[in-house]
Amino acid sequence: MSNIKELYFQEYLDLDGKYRSFKKYKSLMECFIEHTCDIFIKGDTCKYSTCDAAFVGFCKAAKVSFNEGNKVFRSIDNITAYC
Fold first, then answer.
1. 3-class secondary structure per residue, the chain
2. What pLDDT, in 10s, does the model give residues 7-36?
């Protein structure tokens, strides 16, 4: 696998992620980044006041459980340290 997103997806599968399609995973990953990047990476509170609030916002927007959302986060963080 040469693409970093493919590495993330493989990690997600290894974490027993619910969704087996790369297309669905990519959509979840993009939603996660959209909701969390400002506060997690930049410390910018323009969208959310805390990292926890951003994570909850992601889970609600993506319509996934906290557990499934955590697998998306871990799939990125385990490969390239998200925070």
1. CCCHHHHHHHHHHHCCCCCCCHHHHHHHHHHHHHHHHHHHHHCCCCCCCCHHHHHHHHHHHHCCCHHHHHHHHHHHHHHHCCC
2. 999 999 999 999 999 999 999 999 999 999
Annotated domain spans of the chain: 4-80
pLDDT at 82: 85
Q: In angstroms, rounded to a whole number, what is the distance separating the alpha carbons of residues 10 and 34?
A: 21
Whether residue 1 is predicted with pLDDT greater than 60 in this model: the reply is no
Cα 23 from Cα 53, distance rounded (Å): 26
